[in-house]
Design goal:
- This protein has 3 domains: 223 residues, 3-Layer(bba) Sandwich (FAD/NAD(P)-binding domain), CATH 3.50.50; 91 residues, no CATH class; 129 residues.
- Helix content is 34%, strand content 19%.
- It contains 14 helices and 19 strands.
- The strands form 5 sheets. The protein has a 7-stranded mixed sheet with strand order 7-6-15-16-17-14-18, sandwiched between helices. A 5-stranded parallel sheet has the order 9-2-1-13-19, covered by helices on one side. Strands 10-11-12 form a 3-stranded antiparallel sheet, with no helix packed on it.
- α1 packs parallel to α9, α3 crosses α8 and α6 packs antiparallel against α7.
- The two termini are 14 Å apart.
- The chain binds flavin-adenine dinucleotide (FAD).
- The site of flavin-adenine dinucleotide has 35 residues, from α1 and α14.
């Protein structure tokens, strides 16, 4: 099957689809606008330390294994992955730290019967969804009808939100906030997120959040090693300027003012950006989408190791969780927001630990369209102060900081072409999920495909990998059908 494929963008979606198609024997060229691969998961460097740019958590590890198997590889040959019993360390102002454990049978949940039931219930719902919806294209009427005939589907289409389900069921206030915090990974505050996404925290209990030695960068290195082995061709610093299409058929792209002809084009770039800026006007029509929130990230190199026992993944819950979620939904600047704190040195022994240590702090903030403020110097300084106040809870002071670097929503727009600087893409509202989300095939343009967090099934490394499998299967199926004619 010697088709020439052009992939626009080298994010997780672009690279994984490229690997599936190389494995199927196609000629694949990946064009990336930036000087390194990986999109939002590309590492960044500060004072000799490597930082994960965005994703740090291996959520749904089984999907990673499935992906490697799908391209004829064994994940164990590429990644050193170890199980962790503690999922998160929880930090609350003026309270003792506590650990959120993976095993819901453990003593920590002994009195939390409701929480255990909630987790088990949503683990089951996720298994159903994974089989019936998340691993299939949902653009043909037969798949949709088959799904609608199942009673489980209807039970999931409730108008309830994660906020309602979790706060109705989980009575312990701290556990409730820690559960709500995890639903933020889908890019919306819990009061706007459909109840079914309660499966995000449930999934962490079911499959754990294992540690990858070397972090997400090691995963990216593995993808690139296989990409080279399979003969993929990578073009860095090569922004695609336009997609060439006529008579409802794609025929290539324009890069550096020159046409590059191909049989198939896959856009891993942001969906709305692709439709608005890359495709010819007549093929770029789309509905209006609501976008997810964005993030502010502060990366710090510090003089000493954390004075208290942090784990790799830590949550600072802030002073007033509920009010902060409302502020986020209303586009207001945060006051004492919840913060995800990544501490990659947590597992290092004394021998391994260096003189300095790194910490990355991630705060959910309104996207550029919703924000009722601009990222002025004053706002950036205020955000740093907010992060330092949280750091004080774990025994660091500003004097411990050797070097700092921040990332604001504009960077998601300018560097990665993410519409509205929305870090998680098209928001996962009910009317923008599943059958209502953009699908892998362009409805009108033959041989034009999409992949990435804006496309069904959606956001998160494991979801994007599922999307890559869907896109690749659709392409292979179409090629086989063409060969028959
Ligand atoms: C702060 C943050 C934390 C996260 N944490 C986690 C986590 O812990 N675990 C998890 O599973 N997921 C996490 N996620 C989600 C996960 O990282 C994303 O869903 C996933 O990486 C998105 O990949 P993608 O392929 O869709 O897009 P992208 O990474 O955006 O890739 C798109 C690529 O296209 C390129 N591009 C754009 N326009 C052009 C053009 N014209 N020409 C050429 N190239 C172009 C861009 O430069 C980019 O490289 C996190 C996301 C963020 C933002």
């Amino acid at each position: 099957m010697k088709k020439k494929v052009v992939v626009i963008g080298s994010g997780v979606g672009g690279l994984c689809t490229a690997l599936y198609l190389l494995h199927a024997g196609m000629e694949v060229h990946v064009y990336e606008k930036n000087d390194k691969v990986g999109g939002v998961i590309a590492p960044s460097y500060l004072s000799g330390n490597t930082f994960e740019q965005s994703a740090t958590m291996m959520i749904e590890p089984e999907q990673y294994r499935r992906f490697f198997k799908g391209i004829g590889k064994d994940m164990n040959d590429y990644l050193e992955v170890s199980e962790k019993e503690v999922l998160y360390t929880i930090i609350e102002p003026n309270k003792a730290l506590w650990k959120l454990e993976r095993r819901i049978e453990s003593d920590a949940f002994e009195k939390q019967i409701e929480y255990r039931n909630l987790v088990t219930n949503y683990q089951k719902k996720y298994s159903f969804l994974n089989k019936q919806l998340l691993t299939k294209p949902v653009d043909d009427i037969c798949t949709v009808l088959a799904l609608m005939r199942k009673k489980e589907t209807w039970s999931m289409l409730s108008k309830n939100t994660c906020k309602k389900v979790i706060s109705d069921v989980v009575s312990d206030e701290s556990l409730q906030k820690a559960t709500l915090f995890q639903t933020l990974y889908m890019g919306l505050p819990a009061q706007l997120l459909p109840a079914i996404f309660t499966s995000v925290p449930a999934l962490s209990h079911a499959q754990g959040i294992p540690h990858i030695k070397g972090g997400m960068s090691a995963f990216l290195d593995a993808l690139m090693a296989i990409f080279r082995e399979f003969g993929g061709i990578l073009h860095l610093h090569a922004p695609v300027e336009r997609i060439l299409a006529h008579s409802n058929r794609v025929c290539g792209v324009v890069v550096g003012n020159k046409p590059v002809f191909s049989d198939i084009v896959i856009s891993n770039a942001d969906y709305c950006y692709t439709m608005d800026k890359l495709l010819p006007y007549e093929y770029g029509k789309r509905r209006n989408y609501t976008h997810s929130v964005s993030v502010y990230i502060l990366r710090l190199v510090l003089k000493k190791k954390a004075p208290c026992v942090l784990t790799e993944h830590n949550m600072y819950l802030g002073e007033n969780f509920e009010e902060e979620m409302n502020r986020l939904a209303e586009g207001k600047f945060p006051q004492t927001p919840p913060i995800y704190i990544y501490y990659p040195d947590s597992g290092k022994t004394e021998q391994e630990s260096q003189v300095s240590t790194c910490i990355q702090m991630v705060v959910r903030v309104p996207n550029l369209q919703n924000a009722k403020f601009s990222w002025t110097t004053e706002k950036k300084e205020r955000m740093q102060e907010i992060c330092y106040l949280a750091l004080a809870e774990i025994g660091f002071t500003k004097d411990d900081v050797i070097n700092a670097e921040e990332m604001i929503p504009e960077e998601f727009l300018n560097k990665y072409n993410r519409s509205n600087g929305a870090s998680f893409g098209i928001a996962h509202t009910l009317m923008q999920s599943g059958v209502f989300r953009p699908q892998s095939k362009h409805p009108d343009v033959k041989d034009m495909y999409f992949v990435g967090s804006n496309i069904h099934p959606g956001n998160g490394v494991s979801m994007v990998m599922k999307g890559a499998a869907i896109t690749a299967k659709e392409i292979v199926k179409a090629c086989l059908e063409q060969e028959k004619i």
